[in-house]
Amino acid sequence: MNEPTERGPGDGGTPPGGPLPPPPYGAPAAVAPPPPAVDPVPEGEPYHLLARTARNRWWRPVVGSLFILGVGAVFVLGLGMVLGIVAAFSGVDMTDPEALFTEMPLLTLVTTALGLALTLPLVLFAVRFVQRRPAGSASSVAGRLRWGWMALCAAVALGAMLVSWGVSLTYSLLSGQGLGEFEVDWAGWGAFLPAAAVIVVLIPFQAAAEEYVFRGWLMQAFGAFMRTPWPGALVSSLVFMSLHGYRDWGMAWVFLFGLCLAYVTIRTGGLEAAIGLHVVHNVGGFLLAAAAGETASPLDQGSVSWEIMLGPGVELLIFLAVVLPLAKRRNVATRS
């Protein structure tokens, strides 16, 4: 018969030398480690579902949306008040709705673009501190902005925009309208260079901020409640359209533009393609207006004819036709 052997603590037996003494009186009890500051995004999910973390609750997207809307409105209205005060002291006739665009175009552009651009850090703050997930998950499924991919998309957008300008110009000539919107009275370098500097510096942030709000935050906020991306894409495009001043065919164009940006965001797993197209489109339009000495004219939106859809429509079609296969060929990640 085998003799029993002494078992160690790992074997469930009494440790050599007898049982361990109890902890000294008053010793602190074991404390569970605090929860992580942020939750990791769920693995294997598309971009619009990245807000479905362990901390996801119904109120987080709501509170985050109210925060972005409220503080963003304060920024925009505050800068608008500054513009109004400066205009009043400068003797601008504020009863004329066109006065700011014609008499103070550069300052109008600066305050408008800056007010919109400031919503970008608000989105990142809400993602990090309201939804408690990595701020980079607002950019893409990779958890960051994929700069190389965005630069490539911007290059495609530039080519598509130049082709669209050619289409618009050709239509204007064939329809007997002359050069149309391309009939530019050169404003001179003294007027163009300051405006171009402002456009190149501020407009990319303004366009990127709109993408983070509409194709980023809003689509992921809907994704926190439902798995299909299309309600978020439709609602974000409608809100995007409503915040522009266009009417008639212009409204249809802005809605279609927003919907295409939502589609390419879903298909490429991030905001890079949408930002690239939006930045190039806006910068090109503002530079063309600045060359004619009408720096703020793109902000003076209103009723437009159906012809406005021709060139930009071609721009969208070319961009999607090139970028989507390119993303597949380059194995751009579409899931976390």
TrEMBL record:
Residues in CAAX prenyl protease 2/Lysostaphin resistance protein A-like domain copies: 196-283
Keywords: Hydrolase, Membrane, Metalloprotease, Protease, Transmembrane, Transmembrane helix
Transmembrane intervals: 62-86, 106-127, 147-174, 186-205, 217-243, 249-266, 273-292, 304-327
Disordered, as annotated region: 1-38
Biased composition (Pro residues): 16-38
GO MF annotation: an example: metallopeptidase activity
Superkingdom of origin: Bacteria
InterPro entries named in the record: Rce1/LyrA-like_dom
Protein's name in the database: CPBP family intramembrane metalloprotease
